[in-house]
Write a sequence for this structure.
């Protein structure tokens, strides 16, 4: 048994230590909001925060995490109250299929924490997640709206 | 706040005891189907549907049934709007659910077509879903008339409330729904004039958003159930090759491994407790393949095969007027150009997956699919059980784009589950498996030859397409005397689907079919994509040769509806007016999926040859607009999809196998390259057209035409990443 600090809780798992954090979250801890898209840190669907840093969990062996704080998409809203970024996402009606959106929201959350008023160039640099439905225009709009909120 | 969709949180209708109490009315609406209500003990009572489309609960909640699959395109919201409009219900009380394909079969296909492709969701089902809403409304009014003891003709329905104006009495839908469900449905209903719409036609928010920003949304890949195992597959790297041997003993003792099985003679599957364990074991599994002569195929051999077709004698004629060859031979000026469009991959963000449970007398599948009934047929075939003993429980799709119209992954999941009777098995494809075993956007080339007279008028045009047929690959039974009519999408002489818009006095469009072994399939926009690249690029080349402006040149040739939408885009973009220094416009138009679309791209290419697509102005005439906000999103998304293909999309073949394995070798457009997209809606209200696909076709040619203006370089072979745009190079 090993312990992970996820969304403020200590959670046990028995995965092989080299298992990517992504699959421990999804298959051991039933946190399926974090998505598998590529497994090679290219798409961002698996983005979580580790000590506040947006990280692609498909390339993080679970034994490298230690007791650092992991936050997943499920850990953003508190008692059903959406964060201002999630609210902006709903307001701008961003998601289409939605599969990339957990990663998008996690990346945007980290961006706004680091840069409360991001420019378009900041957004371009930080939001390298792939969205095949092409929600990019609404993603940009929602980030700017959240920055103003 | 909107009530969210219910289907994923509730067992299927049938498993909750879907009792057929009367004869199902073929193709109509039938009553007496009991649907136990399961949203908590407080509502533990039976709620009867008003008809196949509408269930109203005592608390006024309206559940609208959606047969088409939601994959991001917004069809469920649009279809709900159409039903709710006629139903006159409170939009804030609307929830939705999927009936299952087996329920559709059991009820004489009361929900009609489940297939979700070809931008058909709204354009093909608008009539019957609106009738479903209107009939339910009439039944509610009739029940209210009885309850209020007032003539039905004196009652009005609005916002889920029925009012008798004279007496001031009102009753809510929830209060009369049970009584209404006992009534005979009206034989005929009159649908509202779209100009009176209050819910349809409005830019309403989607019904399926909140769960997608909180991580709660369950997709097929997230599906789980007690006792479920997880499997992953490796099929022969060469499509069409066979499995020669594999050594299961090498991985049998690895962590979590439960079983190693071969399926269909061409793939091996490891079943384990988790995906990660299955994947790790599969990577260690020795396999040997029989690929025969297919190993000699490469992109070069495919290219040579297609080139030969450009001048081949035999070709299928798709569109012909007059004598194009003679007109071109006698023309004052002759223009010729050859173009190519490579294989593309759909890249749904969610890799293929399906969960299946098979017993001796039952086969159940949980998956995202664009075609529930095809998935049901695949489940039946793979399990060997009759359709009546199978069902498919549709999950939301993490992207479809045509890929999930094919049920290969469903078949595989069922074959694996069959090996472990009673155990649910979720089969997940790795991204690598997904990249290398798609049914790819077909590969084609085209040679276009045009003749101009002394005034620069187009007197003859010959377009020879050479390349792959989707029907030959996936549905050979649908070929017509060997010809694939789908090849001519956007080029057909007439029809409501995808007709050619130019009046050319002498025209010949023909196709030399050349089919490599790589499976071809429907890819969002399908053949309108490359056909528009070829035709719209060539129109610019012809305009240049004629010394005319490309807009003016096109407008002289285009039929009215095609011309109107192109003009709308050009006007909105300020075409012909001064642009910022270094910016250039490019145009393209097409008709596809019943709609007329056009795009104007504004690009700049800097001295280093770097391309920046600044802005796209896109016009759409889809006849009726059901949700303008969602159309805008589909149009912007179409440019992301089409431009990603134009910039980077290319699947290549080496030693018979697809070379690209993941996003490091198949690059995709990110936010930094996404232009601003401005959508102009110019609906003419006289037809119903699709929205999810047509616009993709104008993405690449509008940008290629703008690049040619900016650099003088005409790119005729995609993707753009292979081309140097720097001047003088
Ligand atoms: S799944 Fe981790 S970046 Fe794609
Ligand atoms: S919303 Fe579908 S991939 Fe982004």
């Amino acid at each position: 048994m090993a312990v992970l600090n996820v969304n403020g809780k200590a959670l046990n798992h028995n995965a092989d230590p080299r298992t990517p954090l992504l699959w421990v979250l999804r298959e051991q801890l039933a946190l399926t909001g974090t998505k598998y898209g590529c497994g090679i840190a290219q798409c961002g669907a698996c983005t979580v925060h580790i000590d506040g840093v947006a990280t692609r969990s498909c390339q993080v062996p679970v034994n490298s995490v230690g007791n650092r704080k992991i936050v997943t998409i499920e850990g953003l809203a508190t008692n059903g109250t959406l964060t201002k970024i999630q609210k902006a996402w709903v307001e701008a009606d961003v998601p289409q299929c939605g599969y990339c959106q957990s990663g998008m929201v996690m990346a945007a959350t980290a961006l706004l924490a680091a840069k409360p008023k991001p420019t378009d160039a900041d957004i371009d640099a930080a939001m390298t997640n792939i969205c095949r439905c092409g929600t990019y225009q609404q993603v940009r709009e929602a980030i700017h709206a959240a920055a103003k909120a | 706040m909107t009530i969210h969709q219910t289907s994923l949180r509730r067992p299927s209708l049938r498993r909750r005891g879907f009792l057929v109490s009367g004869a199902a009315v073929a193709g109509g609406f039938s009553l007496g189907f009991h649907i136990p209500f399961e949203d908590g003990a407080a509502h533990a009572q039976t709620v009867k549907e008003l008809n196949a489309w509408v269930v109203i609960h005592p608390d006024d909640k309206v559940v609208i049934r959606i047969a088409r699959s939601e994959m991001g395109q917004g069809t469920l919201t649009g279809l709900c709007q159409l039903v709710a409009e006629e139903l006159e219900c409170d939009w804030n009380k609307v929830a939705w659910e999927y009936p299952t394909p087996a329920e559709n079969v059991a009820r004489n296909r009361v929900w009609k077509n489940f297939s979700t492709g070809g931008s058909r969701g709204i354009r093909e089902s608008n009539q019957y879903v609106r009738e479903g809403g209107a009939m339910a409304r009439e039944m509610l009014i009739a029940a209210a008339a009885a309850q209020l003891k007032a003539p039905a003709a004196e009652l009005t329905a609005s916002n889920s409330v029925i009012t008798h104006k004279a007496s001031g009495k009102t009753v809510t839908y929830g209060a009369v729904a049970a009584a209404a469900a006992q009534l005979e449905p009206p034989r005929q209903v009159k649908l509202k004039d779209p100009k009176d719409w209050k819910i349809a036609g409005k830019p309403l928010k989607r019904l399926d958003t909140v769960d997608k920003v909180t991580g709660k949304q369950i997709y097929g890949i997230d599906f789980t159930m007690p006792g479920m195992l997880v499997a992953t597959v490796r099929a022969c790297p060469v499509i069409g090759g066979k499995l020669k041997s594999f050594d299961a003993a090498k991985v049998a003792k690895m962590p979590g491994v439960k079983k190693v099985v071969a399926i269909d003679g061409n793939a091996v599957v490891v079943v384990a407790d988790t995906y990660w364990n299955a994947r790790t074991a599969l990577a260690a599994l020795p396999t040997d393949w029989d690929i025969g002569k297919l190993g000699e195929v490469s992109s070069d051999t495919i290219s040579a095969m297609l080139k030969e077709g450009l001048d081949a004698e035999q070709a299928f004629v798709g569109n012909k007027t007059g004598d194009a060859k003679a007109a071109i031979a006698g023309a004052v000026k002759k223009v010729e150009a050859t173009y190519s469009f490579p294989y593309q991959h759909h890249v749904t963000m969610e890799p293929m997956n399906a969960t299946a449970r098979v017993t001796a007398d039952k086969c159940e599948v949980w998956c995202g699919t664009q075609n529930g009934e095809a998935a049901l047929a695949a489940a039946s075939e793979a399990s060997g059980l009759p359709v009546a003993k199978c069902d498919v429980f549709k999950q939301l799709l993490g992207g479809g784009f045509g890929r999930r119209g094919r049920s290969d992954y469903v078949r595989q999941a069922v074959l694996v589950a069959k090996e472990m009777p009673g155990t649910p098995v979720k089969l997940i494809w790795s991204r690598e498996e997904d990249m290398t075993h798609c049914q790819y956007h077909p590969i084609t080339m085209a040679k276009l030859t045009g003749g101009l007279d002394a005034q620069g008028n187009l007197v003859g045009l010959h377009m020879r397409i050479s390349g792959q047929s989707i029907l030959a690959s996936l549905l050979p039974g649908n070929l017509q005397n060997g010809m694939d009519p789908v090849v001519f999408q956007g080029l057909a002489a007439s029809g409501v689907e995808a007709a050619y818009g130019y009046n050319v006095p002498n025209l010949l469009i023909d196709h030399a079919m050349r089919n490599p072994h790589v499976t071809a399939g429907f890819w969002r926009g399908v053949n309108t994509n490359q056909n528009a690249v070829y035709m719209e690029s060539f129109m610019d080349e012809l305009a240049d040769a004629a010394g005319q402006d490309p807009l003016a040149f096109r407008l002289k040739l285009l039929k009215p509806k095609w011309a109107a939408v192109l003009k709308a885009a050009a006007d909105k973009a300020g075409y012909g007016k001064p642009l910022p220094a270094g910016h250039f416009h490019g145009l393209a138009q097409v008709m596809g999926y019943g709609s007329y679309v056009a795009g104007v791209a504004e690009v700049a290419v800097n001295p280093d040859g770097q391309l920046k697509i600044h802005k796209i102005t896109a016009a759409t005439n889809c006849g009726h607009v059901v949700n303008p906000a969602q159309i805008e999103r589909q149009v912007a998304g179409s440019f992301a999809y089409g431009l990603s293909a134009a910039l980077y999309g290319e699947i290549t073949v080496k030693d018979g196998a697809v070379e690209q394995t993941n996003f490091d070798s198949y690059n995709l457009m990110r936010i930094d390259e996404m232009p601003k997209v401005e959508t102009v809606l110019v609906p003419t209200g006289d037809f119903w057209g699709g929205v999810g696909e047509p616009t993709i076709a104008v993405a690449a040619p509008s940008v290629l035409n703008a690049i040619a203006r900016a650099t003088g370089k005409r790119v005729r072979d995609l993707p753009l990443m292979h081309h140097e745009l720097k001047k003088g190079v």
About this structure: Residues 229 and 425 of chain B are 5 Å apart (CA to CA). Chain B touches chain A through 60 residues (CB under 8 Å).
